[in-house]
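User: If only I could read C-alpha coordinates as easily as an amino acid sequence. Underneath my words sits a plain record pairing an amino acid chain with its C-alpha coordinates. This is the protein in question:
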Amino acid sequence: MDRLVILPMLPSYTPKYSFIPKIFISYCTRSNLSVQLGDLLKKSLEEKGFDTFLDRYDIPVGESFVDQIDAAIHDCHGAVLLLSGEAKGSVDAKGSVWVADEAAILLARKQRLEKIIMVPALMPPIQSVEDFFGERSRLWKMSDLQGLLVDPERMAETVAAIIEKLEPLKKIQDFFEKKLPLSPFKTLQNAQGVQRLKPQARFLPLIGREGKLQDLYGWLNGEKPITVRVLTGGAGRGKTRLALELGQVVEESGWHTGFLQGESLAELVRQNENGWSRPTLAVIDYAAQHARIIQQWLTRLASFRMETPVTKKLIPLRILLLERVAEEGSGWWQTLLGSGSWGDEDVQDLFDPLRPIPLAMLSSAKGDEILIRMLQQSGVQHPTAPQLPPEAPEWRGEPLFAMMAGQLLAEQEDLPRTRTELAIRLAQREMKRIAGFAQDKGQGILLNHLAAFVTVCGGVDSDTAFRLAQTEKDALNLPLAGDPWTLADLLHQALPGPQNGVDGLRPDIIGEAFFLLALG
Protein backbone atom coordinates (compact mmCIF):
# COMPACT_ATOMS: atom_id res chain seq x y z
CA MET A 1 0.00 0.00 0.00
CA ASP A 2 1.34 3.45 -0.89
CA ARG A 3 2.21 5.71 2.00
CA LEU A 4 -0.04 8.73 2.37
CA VAL A 5 1.84 11.92 3.11
CA ILE A 6 -0.42 14.25 5.09
CA LEU A 7 0.41 17.89 4.33
CA PRO A 8 -1.31 20.90 5.94
CA MET A 9 -3.33 23.29 3.85
CA LEU A 10 -1.47 26.30 2.52
CA PRO A 11 -2.76 29.38 4.34
CA SER A 12 -4.47 32.29 2.63
CA TYR A 13 -4.70 30.75 -0.85
CA THR A 14 -7.48 28.81 -2.51
CA PRO A 15 -7.14 26.50 -5.52
CA LYS A 16 -8.56 29.09 -7.92
CA TYR A 17 -6.87 32.46 -8.11
CA SER A 18 -9.38 35.30 -7.79
CA PHE A 19 -8.77 38.30 -10.03
CA ILE A 20 -10.09 41.70 -8.89
CA PRO A 21 -9.37 44.66 -11.20
CA LYS A 22 -7.72 47.60 -9.46
CA ILE A 23 -8.90 51.09 -10.46
CA PHE A 24 -6.86 54.22 -9.82
CA ILE A 25 -8.91 57.43 -9.44
CA SER A 26 -6.97 60.57 -10.39
CA TYR A 27 -8.46 63.91 -9.36
CA CYS A 28 -7.75 67.37 -7.95
CA THR A 29 -8.75 68.04 -4.33
CA ARG A 30 -9.39 71.70 -5.19
CA SER A 31 -12.36 70.68 -7.33
CA ASN A 32 -15.42 70.06 -5.19
CA LEU A 33 -17.16 68.32 -8.08
CA SER A 34 -14.17 65.99 -8.55
CA VAL A 35 -14.13 65.15 -4.84
CA GLN A 36 -17.85 64.40 -4.94
CA LEU A 37 -17.62 62.28 -8.09
CA GLY A 38 -14.49 60.49 -6.82
CA ASP A 39 -16.30 59.42 -3.64
CA LEU A 40 -19.33 58.24 -5.60
CA LEU A 41 -17.13 56.35 -8.04
CA LYS A 42 -15.20 54.58 -5.30
CA LYS A 43 -18.38 53.41 -3.57
CA SER A 44 -20.06 52.30 -6.81
CA LEU A 45 -16.99 50.53 -8.24
CA GLU A 46 -16.42 48.54 -5.05
CA GLU A 47 -20.09 47.54 -5.01
CA LYS A 48 -19.54 46.20 -8.57
CA GLY A 49 -16.56 44.05 -7.53
CA PHE A 50 -13.65 46.37 -8.34
CA ASP A 51 -10.80 47.35 -6.03
CA THR A 52 -10.11 51.10 -5.98
CA PHE A 53 -7.41 53.53 -4.95
CA LEU A 54 -8.45 57.03 -3.88
CA ASP A 55 -5.69 58.77 -2.00
CA ARG A 56 -7.85 60.27 0.77
CA TYR A 57 -8.96 56.82 1.89
CA ASP A 58 -6.17 54.45 0.84
CA ILE A 59 -2.89 55.98 2.03
CA PRO A 60 -2.07 54.88 5.59
CA VAL A 61 -1.21 57.55 8.13
CA GLY A 62 2.51 58.32 8.16
CA GLU A 63 3.21 56.89 4.70
CA SER A 64 4.66 58.88 1.82
CA PHE A 65 1.92 60.20 -0.49
CA VAL A 66 4.28 60.17 -3.48
CA ASP A 67 5.43 56.56 -2.92
CA GLN A 68 1.93 55.26 -2.29
CA ILE A 69 0.44 56.99 -5.33
CA ASP A 70 3.31 55.82 -7.54
CA ALA A 71 2.82 52.21 -6.39
CA ALA A 72 -0.93 52.41 -7.00
CA ILE A 73 -0.45 53.81 -10.53
CA HIS A 74 1.92 50.96 -11.44
CA ASP A 75 -0.32 48.27 -9.91
CA CYS A 76 -3.68 49.34 -11.35
CA HIS A 77 -5.49 47.70 -14.25
CA GLY A 78 -7.61 50.71 -15.07
CA ALA A 79 -7.82 54.41 -14.24
CA VAL A 80 -10.42 57.16 -14.16
CA LEU A 81 -9.04 60.65 -14.84
CA LEU A 82 -11.28 63.37 -13.43
CA LEU A 83 -10.24 66.28 -15.65
CA SER A 84 -11.35 69.56 -14.11
CA GLY A 85 -10.41 73.18 -14.61
CA GLU A 86 -8.83 73.16 -11.15
CA ALA A 87 -6.71 70.09 -12.06
CA LYS A 88 -5.56 71.76 -15.26
CA GLY A 89 -4.27 74.82 -13.45
CA SER A 90 -3.24 73.18 -10.17
CA VAL A 91 0.54 73.23 -9.68
CA ASP A 92 2.13 72.19 -6.38
CA ALA A 93 5.17 73.74 -4.71
CA LYS A 94 7.52 71.64 -6.84
CA GLY A 95 5.86 72.58 -10.10
CA SER A 96 4.04 69.26 -10.48
CA VAL A 97 0.62 69.08 -12.12
CA TRP A 98 -0.69 65.98 -10.34
CA VAL A 99 -3.44 64.74 -12.66
CA ALA A 100 -1.37 65.38 -15.78
CA ASP A 101 1.69 63.67 -14.29
CA GLU A 102 -0.35 60.66 -13.22
CA ALA A 103 -1.85 60.46 -16.71
CA ALA A 104 1.67 60.53 -18.22
CA ILE A 105 2.73 57.46 -16.21
CA LEU A 106 -0.45 55.59 -17.13
CA LEU A 107 0.00 56.42 -20.81
CA ALA A 108 3.58 55.17 -20.71
CA ARG A 109 2.26 51.83 -19.43
CA LYS A 110 -0.41 51.76 -22.12
CA GLN A 111 2.16 52.43 -24.85
CA ARG A 112 4.18 49.42 -23.59
CA LEU A 113 1.19 47.38 -24.79
CA GLU A 114 -0.19 46.90 -21.30
CA LYS A 115 -3.92 46.53 -21.74
CA ILE A 116 -4.97 49.05 -19.12
CA ILE A 117 -8.20 50.99 -19.62
CA MET A 118 -8.16 54.76 -19.08
CA VAL A 119 -11.43 56.68 -18.81
CA PRO A 120 -11.20 60.52 -18.87
CA ALA A 121 -14.21 62.21 -17.22
CA LEU A 122 -14.53 65.82 -18.44
CA MET A 123 -15.69 68.19 -15.72
CA PRO A 124 -17.06 71.62 -16.64
CA PRO A 125 -15.57 73.72 -18.18
CA ILE A 126 -13.31 71.04 -19.82
CA GLN A 127 -14.86 69.92 -23.12
CA SER A 128 -12.28 67.47 -24.51
CA VAL A 129 -9.08 65.61 -23.64
CA GLU A 130 -7.18 68.00 -25.93
CA ASP A 131 -8.71 70.94 -24.08
CA PHE A 132 -7.18 69.68 -20.81
CA PHE A 133 -3.77 68.42 -21.98
CA GLY A 134 -3.15 70.85 -24.83
CA GLU A 135 -0.02 70.11 -26.87
CA ARG A 136 0.80 67.16 -24.62
CA SER A 137 -2.24 65.28 -25.95
CA ARG A 138 -0.48 65.05 -29.34
CA LEU A 139 2.94 64.24 -27.90
CA TRP A 140 1.46 61.55 -25.67
CA LYS A 141 -0.65 60.08 -28.50
CA MET A 142 -3.93 60.49 -26.63
CA SER A 143 -6.18 60.61 -29.68
CA ASP A 144 -7.76 57.23 -28.78
CA LEU A 145 -8.88 58.44 -25.35
CA GLN A 146 -12.53 59.45 -25.63
CA GLY A 147 -13.68 61.56 -22.71
CA LEU A 148 -17.08 61.39 -21.00
CA LEU A 149 -18.77 64.74 -20.41
CA VAL A 150 -19.88 65.05 -16.79
CA ASP A 151 -23.26 66.63 -16.07
CA PRO A 152 -23.30 67.70 -12.38
CA GLU A 153 -27.07 67.20 -12.37
CA ARG A 154 -26.81 63.59 -13.61
CA MET A 155 -23.88 62.13 -11.65
CA ALA A 156 -25.39 58.65 -11.32
CA GLU A 157 -25.54 58.32 -15.12
CA THR A 158 -21.90 59.44 -15.38
CA VAL A 159 -20.82 56.82 -12.84
CA ALA A 160 -22.76 54.09 -14.67
CA ALA A 161 -21.12 55.08 -17.99
CA ILE A 162 -17.62 54.96 -16.43
CA ILE A 163 -18.25 51.54 -14.89
CA GLU A 164 -19.52 50.24 -18.24
CA LYS A 165 -16.20 51.22 -19.86
CA LEU A 166 -14.26 49.44 -17.09
CA GLU A 167 -16.30 46.21 -17.10
CA PRO A 168 -14.14 44.48 -19.81
CA LEU A 169 -11.30 44.36 -17.28
CA LYS A 170 -13.09 41.52 -15.49
CA LYS A 171 -12.89 39.36 -18.61
CA ILE A 172 -9.15 39.62 -19.31
CA GLN A 173 -7.62 38.15 -16.18
CA ASP A 174 -4.95 36.20 -18.09
CA PHE A 175 -3.62 39.35 -19.70
CA PHE A 176 -3.03 41.05 -16.38
CA GLU A 177 -1.84 38.00 -14.50
CA LYS A 178 1.92 38.37 -14.27
CA LYS A 179 3.85 35.12 -14.42
CA LEU A 180 7.48 34.13 -14.46
CA PRO A 181 8.40 32.27 -17.69
CA LEU A 182 8.28 28.80 -16.16
CA SER A 183 8.16 25.51 -18.06
CA PRO A 184 5.31 23.59 -16.43
CA PHE A 185 5.88 20.37 -14.52
CA LYS A 186 4.58 17.59 -16.76
CA THR A 187 3.93 13.94 -16.05
CA LEU A 188 5.26 11.57 -18.71
CA GLN A 189 2.40 9.27 -19.66
CA ASN A 190 2.73 5.57 -20.60
CA ALA A 191 6.51 5.54 -20.07
CA GLN A 192 8.37 2.46 -21.30
CA GLY A 193 11.95 1.16 -20.94
CA VAL A 194 14.41 3.66 -19.50
CA GLN A 195 11.75 6.38 -19.82
CA ARG A 196 10.20 4.88 -16.68
CA LEU A 197 13.31 6.03 -14.81
CA LYS A 198 12.73 9.71 -15.59
CA PRO A 199 11.44 11.66 -12.60
CA GLN A 200 8.66 13.07 -14.82
CA ALA A 201 7.30 9.53 -15.29
CA ARG A 202 6.52 9.21 -11.55
CA PHE A 203 6.63 5.47 -12.20
CA LEU A 204 6.81 4.71 -8.47
CA PRO A 205 5.33 6.59 -5.52
CA LEU A 206 7.70 8.78 -3.54
CA ILE A 207 9.52 6.47 -1.11
CA GLY A 208 11.77 7.55 1.73
CA ARG A 209 11.58 11.31 1.12
CA GLU A 210 8.37 12.10 3.00
CA GLY A 211 10.25 14.03 5.69
CA LYS A 212 12.08 16.16 3.12
CA LEU A 213 8.79 16.92 1.40
CA GLN A 214 7.39 18.13 4.72
CA ASP A 215 10.47 20.33 5.25
CA LEU A 216 10.05 21.92 1.81
CA TYR A 217 6.37 22.48 2.46
CA GLY A 218 7.25 24.31 5.65
CA TRP A 219 9.68 26.46 3.65
CA LEU A 220 6.90 27.42 1.25
CA ASN A 221 4.80 28.52 4.21
CA GLY A 222 7.55 30.75 5.62
CA GLU A 223 6.82 34.38 6.50
CA LYS A 224 9.35 36.02 4.17
CA PRO A 225 7.84 36.96 0.79
CA ILE A 226 10.88 35.93 -1.31
CA THR A 227 13.16 33.05 -0.30
CA VAL A 228 15.72 30.79 -1.94
CA ARG A 229 16.70 27.25 -1.00
CA VAL A 230 19.53 25.14 -2.43
CA LEU A 231 19.17 21.35 -2.54
CA THR A 232 22.23 19.24 -3.39
CA GLY A 233 22.83 15.57 -4.02
CA GLY A 234 24.55 13.29 -6.47
CA ALA A 235 23.03 12.05 -9.71
CA GLY A 236 20.03 9.83 -8.99
CA ARG A 237 19.56 11.06 -5.43
CA GLY A 238 16.01 12.27 -6.18
CA LYS A 239 16.31 16.08 -6.29
CA THR A 240 14.17 16.59 -9.39
CA ARG A 241 11.57 14.04 -8.29
CA LEU A 242 11.23 15.81 -4.94
CA ALA A 243 10.74 19.16 -6.70
CA LEU A 244 8.07 17.62 -8.95
CA GLU A 245 6.20 16.18 -5.98
CA LEU A 246 6.33 19.54 -4.20
CA GLY A 247 5.06 21.30 -7.33
CA GLN A 248 2.17 18.88 -7.73
CA VAL A 249 1.02 19.53 -4.15
CA VAL A 250 1.15 23.33 -4.33
CA GLU A 251 -0.41 23.56 -7.80
CA GLU A 252 -3.59 22.25 -6.20
CA SER A 253 -3.51 25.30 -3.90
CA GLY A 254 -3.37 27.77 -6.78
CA TRP A 255 0.40 28.25 -7.02
CA HIS A 256 2.21 28.81 -10.31
CA THR A 257 4.99 26.22 -10.53
CA GLY A 258 7.58 25.02 -13.00
CA PHE A 259 11.20 24.94 -14.12
CA LEU A 260 12.96 28.21 -14.90
CA GLN A 261 15.29 27.34 -17.79
CA GLY A 262 18.56 29.14 -18.54
CA GLU A 263 17.35 31.02 -21.62
CA SER A 264 14.12 32.11 -19.93
CA LEU A 265 16.05 33.28 -16.87
CA ALA A 266 18.46 35.30 -19.01
CA GLU A 267 15.54 36.92 -20.86
CA LEU A 268 13.86 37.69 -17.54
CA VAL A 269 16.98 39.52 -16.37
CA ARG A 270 17.38 41.36 -19.70
CA GLN A 271 13.78 42.60 -19.57
CA ASN A 272 14.30 43.89 -16.04
CA GLU A 273 10.85 42.63 -15.06
CA ASN A 274 9.66 41.91 -11.53
CA GLY A 275 6.19 40.61 -11.00
CA TRP A 276 4.12 37.56 -10.21
CA SER A 277 0.38 37.63 -9.55
CA ARG A 278 0.16 34.28 -7.79
CA PRO A 279 2.30 32.48 -5.22
CA THR A 280 5.11 31.00 -7.31
CA LEU A 281 7.56 28.10 -7.02
CA ALA A 282 10.42 28.36 -9.55
CA VAL A 283 12.83 25.42 -9.79
CA ILE A 284 16.23 25.91 -11.43
CA ASP A 285 18.06 22.66 -12.23
CA TYR A 286 21.83 22.57 -12.88
CA ALA A 287 22.11 25.82 -10.96
CA ALA A 288 25.93 25.97 -11.22
CA GLN A 289 25.70 26.49 -15.00
CA HIS A 290 23.60 29.61 -14.47
CA ALA A 291 25.19 30.94 -11.27
CA ARG A 292 26.05 34.41 -12.58
CA ILE A 293 22.69 35.10 -14.15
CA ILE A 294 20.93 33.73 -11.02
CA GLN A 295 23.03 36.08 -8.90
CA GLN A 296 21.95 39.03 -11.06
CA TRP A 297 18.32 38.02 -10.68
CA LEU A 298 18.62 37.59 -6.91
CA THR A 299 20.29 41.01 -6.63
CA ARG A 300 17.33 42.54 -8.45
CA LEU A 301 14.81 40.64 -6.31
CA ALA A 302 16.57 41.77 -3.14
CA SER A 303 16.36 45.40 -4.29
CA PHE A 304 12.73 44.94 -5.30
CA ARG A 305 11.90 43.57 -1.85
CA MET A 306 13.73 46.40 -0.08
CA GLU A 307 12.08 49.10 -2.22
CA THR A 308 8.55 47.76 -1.81
CA PRO A 309 6.57 49.79 0.78
CA VAL A 310 5.99 47.88 3.99
CA THR A 311 2.26 48.45 3.57
CA LYS A 312 2.24 46.44 0.36
CA LYS A 313 2.18 42.71 1.01
CA LEU A 314 4.29 40.88 -1.58
CA ILE A 315 2.97 37.64 -3.02
CA PRO A 316 5.22 34.67 -2.07
CA LEU A 317 8.02 33.65 -4.44
CA ARG A 318 10.04 30.51 -3.69
CA ILE A 319 13.14 29.66 -5.71
CA LEU A 320 14.50 26.11 -5.42
CA LEU A 321 18.00 25.57 -6.83
CA LEU A 322 19.13 22.02 -7.62
CA GLU A 323 22.74 20.94 -8.09
CA ARG A 324 24.92 17.92 -7.43
CA VAL A 325 27.51 19.73 -5.30
CA ALA A 326 27.76 23.13 -3.61
CA GLU A 327 30.80 23.87 -1.45
CA GLU A 328 30.38 26.69 1.04
CA GLY A 329 32.87 29.49 0.51
CA SER A 330 33.81 28.61 -3.06
CA GLY A 331 32.63 27.88 -6.58
CA TRP A 332 29.16 28.66 -7.83
CA TRP A 333 27.77 28.89 -4.30
CA GLN A 334 30.06 31.81 -3.52
CA THR A 335 29.11 33.43 -6.82
CA LEU A 336 25.49 33.49 -5.63
CA LEU A 337 26.37 35.03 -2.28
CA GLY A 338 28.72 37.68 -3.72
CA SER A 339 32.15 38.86 -2.70
CA GLY A 340 31.19 41.12 0.18
CA SER A 341 30.26 44.19 -1.83
CA TRP A 342 27.36 46.54 -1.12
CA GLY A 343 24.01 44.79 -1.42
CA ASP A 344 25.35 41.25 -0.98
CA GLU A 345 23.85 41.03 2.51
CA ASP A 346 20.41 41.73 1.06
CA VAL A 347 20.89 38.84 -1.38
CA GLN A 348 22.09 36.53 1.38
CA ASP A 349 19.00 37.42 3.40
CA LEU A 350 16.89 35.76 0.69
CA PHE A 351 18.37 32.32 1.45
CA ASP A 352 16.53 30.02 3.83
CA PRO A 353 18.78 28.60 5.17
CA LEU A 354 22.06 30.30 4.24
CA ARG A 355 23.69 27.00 3.33
CA PRO A 356 23.09 24.19 0.84
CA ILE A 357 20.87 21.37 2.10
CA PRO A 358 22.30 17.96 1.14
CA LEU A 359 19.91 15.20 0.15
CA ALA A 360 21.28 12.12 1.89
CA MET A 361 21.17 8.54 0.66
CA LEU A 362 18.22 6.46 1.74
CA SER A 363 18.60 3.57 4.12
CA SER A 364 19.34 0.16 2.61
CA ALA A 365 15.84 -0.96 3.56
CA LYS A 366 14.26 1.94 1.64
CA GLY A 367 16.50 1.26 -1.34
CA ASP A 368 15.43 -2.39 -1.34
CA GLU A 369 11.79 -1.30 -1.09
CA ILE A 370 12.20 0.79 -4.25
CA LEU A 371 13.83 -2.12 -6.05
CA ILE A 372 11.03 -4.50 -5.10
CA ARG A 373 8.37 -1.96 -6.10
CA MET A 374 10.13 -1.62 -9.46
CA LEU A 375 9.91 -5.38 -9.93
CA GLN A 376 6.21 -5.33 -9.05
CA GLN A 377 5.48 -2.49 -11.49
CA SER A 378 7.41 -4.37 -14.17
CA GLY A 379 5.10 -7.36 -13.85
CA VAL A 380 7.22 -9.69 -11.72
CA GLN A 381 4.94 -11.85 -9.59
CA HIS A 382 5.64 -12.02 -5.84
CA PRO A 383 9.11 -10.45 -5.92
CA THR A 384 11.32 -11.15 -2.90
CA ALA A 385 14.42 -9.44 -1.54
CA PRO A 386 16.91 -9.39 -4.43
CA GLN A 387 20.06 -11.45 -4.59
CA LEU A 388 22.66 -8.70 -4.23
CA PRO A 389 26.32 -8.98 -5.17
CA PRO A 390 28.61 -10.46 -2.46
CA GLU A 391 29.84 -6.99 -1.48
CA ALA A 392 27.14 -4.47 -0.60
CA PRO A 393 26.48 -2.42 -3.76
CA GLU A 394 27.33 1.26 -3.51
CA TRP A 395 23.99 2.20 -5.09
CA ARG A 396 21.78 0.45 -2.55
CA GLY A 397 20.36 3.62 -0.97
CA GLU A 398 20.18 5.67 -4.17
CA PRO A 399 16.56 5.96 -5.46
CA LEU A 400 17.32 6.12 -9.19
CA PHE A 401 19.96 3.38 -9.12
CA ALA A 402 17.63 1.12 -7.12
CA MET A 403 15.06 1.60 -9.90
CA MET A 404 17.73 0.88 -12.52
CA ALA A 405 18.66 -2.33 -10.67
CA GLY A 406 15.01 -3.32 -10.52
CA GLN A 407 14.67 -2.85 -14.28
CA LEU A 408 17.69 -5.08 -14.93
CA LEU A 409 16.42 -7.74 -12.52
CA ALA A 410 12.99 -7.67 -14.18
CA GLU A 411 14.71 -8.48 -17.47
CA GLN A 412 16.59 -11.44 -15.95
CA GLU A 413 19.97 -9.75 -15.71
CA ASP A 414 22.43 -10.00 -12.87
CA LEU A 415 23.18 -6.94 -10.78
CA PRO A 416 26.48 -5.05 -11.00
CA ARG A 417 28.00 -3.53 -7.87
CA THR A 418 28.72 0.04 -8.93
CA ARG A 419 26.63 2.96 -10.15
CA THR A 420 28.82 3.28 -13.24
CA GLU A 421 28.25 -0.35 -14.21
CA LEU A 422 24.50 0.04 -13.78
CA ALA A 423 24.49 3.11 -16.01
CA ILE A 424 26.69 1.46 -18.64
CA ARG A 425 24.53 -1.67 -18.73
CA LEU A 426 21.35 0.35 -19.41
CA ALA A 427 23.15 2.63 -21.87
CA GLN A 428 24.27 -0.42 -23.83
CA ARG A 429 20.68 -1.60 -24.00
CA GLU A 430 19.67 1.82 -25.33
CA MET A 431 22.38 1.69 -27.98
CA LYS A 432 21.04 -1.67 -29.15
CA ARG A 433 17.46 -0.36 -29.13
CA ILE A 434 18.28 2.76 -31.16
CA ALA A 435 20.38 0.79 -33.64
CA GLY A 436 17.31 -1.40 -34.14
CA PHE A 437 15.65 1.48 -36.02
CA ALA A 438 18.43 1.35 -38.65
CA GLN A 439 18.45 -0.62 -41.87
CA ASP A 440 22.09 -1.65 -41.60
CA LYS A 441 25.09 -1.52 -39.23
CA GLY A 442 26.49 1.73 -40.62
CA GLN A 443 23.20 3.53 -40.22
CA GLY A 444 22.92 2.13 -36.68
CA ILE A 445 26.32 3.57 -35.75
CA LEU A 446 25.30 6.92 -37.21
CA LEU A 447 21.99 6.97 -35.30
CA ASN A 448 23.80 6.31 -32.02
CA HIS A 449 26.29 9.11 -32.78
CA LEU A 450 23.40 11.46 -33.44
CA ALA A 451 21.57 10.35 -30.29
CA ALA A 452 24.71 11.15 -28.27
CA PHE A 453 24.92 14.67 -29.73
CA VAL A 454 21.22 15.29 -29.17
CA THR A 455 21.56 14.12 -25.55
CA VAL A 456 24.34 16.63 -24.90
CA CYS A 457 22.12 19.35 -26.40
CA GLY A 458 19.22 18.35 -24.16
CA GLY A 459 17.04 17.68 -27.20
CA VAL A 460 16.70 19.43 -30.58
CA ASP A 461 13.99 20.45 -33.03
CA SER A 462 13.51 18.71 -36.37
CA ASP A 463 15.54 21.26 -38.38
CA THR A 464 18.51 20.92 -36.05
CA ALA A 465 18.24 17.13 -36.21
CA PHE A 466 18.39 17.38 -40.02
CA ARG A 467 21.53 19.56 -39.91
CA LEU A 468 23.19 17.26 -37.38
CA ALA A 469 22.43 14.22 -39.54
CA GLN A 470 23.86 15.90 -42.63
CA THR A 471 27.07 16.97 -40.85
CA GLU A 472 27.70 13.68 -39.02
CA LYS A 473 26.97 11.57 -42.08
CA ASP A 474 29.69 13.42 -43.98
CA ALA A 475 32.09 13.32 -41.02
CA LEU A 476 31.77 9.53 -40.68
CA ASN A 477 31.98 9.09 -44.47
CA LEU A 478 28.76 7.06 -44.68
CA PRO A 479 27.26 8.17 -48.01
CA LEU A 480 24.85 5.21 -48.11
CA ALA A 481 23.45 5.69 -44.60
CA GLY A 482 20.32 7.44 -45.88
CA ASP A 483 19.32 11.03 -46.59
CA PRO A 484 19.38 13.46 -43.62
CA TRP A 485 15.59 13.81 -43.39
CA THR A 486 15.20 10.01 -43.16
CA LEU A 487 17.84 9.90 -40.44
CA ALA A 488 16.15 12.72 -38.53
CA ASP A 489 12.83 10.88 -38.75
CA LEU A 490 14.36 7.62 -37.48
CA LEU A 491 15.94 9.53 -34.63
CA HIS A 492 12.56 11.04 -33.76
CA GLN A 493 11.02 7.56 -33.70
CA ALA A 494 13.75 6.33 -31.36
CA LEU A 495 13.75 9.40 -29.08
CA PRO A 496 10.47 11.24 -29.72
CA GLY A 497 10.45 14.93 -28.81
CA PRO A 498 7.76 17.60 -29.14
CA GLN A 499 6.71 18.79 -32.63
CA ASN A 500 8.68 16.09 -34.48
CA GLY A 501 11.84 16.99 -32.58
CA VAL A 502 14.24 14.61 -30.86
CA ASP A 503 14.55 14.30 -27.10
CA GLY A 504 17.81 13.64 -25.28
CA LEU A 505 18.41 10.35 -23.52
CA ARG A 506 17.54 10.58 -19.84
CA PRO A 507 18.04 10.16 -16.91
CA ASP A 508 21.29 12.10 -17.13
CA ILE A 509 23.48 9.37 -15.66
CA ILE A 510 22.41 6.99 -18.46
CA GLY A 511 22.72 9.76 -21.07
CA GLU A 512 26.29 10.47 -19.93
CA ALA A 513 27.21 6.79 -20.14
CA PHE A 514 25.56 6.58 -23.57
CA PHE A 515 27.58 9.54 -24.83
CA LEU A 516 30.88 7.96 -23.75
CA LEU A 517 29.98 4.58 -25.25
CA ALA A 518 28.68 5.98 -28.55
CA LEU A 519 31.59 8.34 -29.17
CA GLY A 520 34.34 6.60 -27.21
The CA atoms of residues 105 and 458 lie 43 Å apart. Strands lie at 22-26, 51-53, 78-83, 117-122, 148-149, 226-232, 256-259, 280-284, 317-323, 357-358. Residues 291-307 form the longest helix (17 residues).
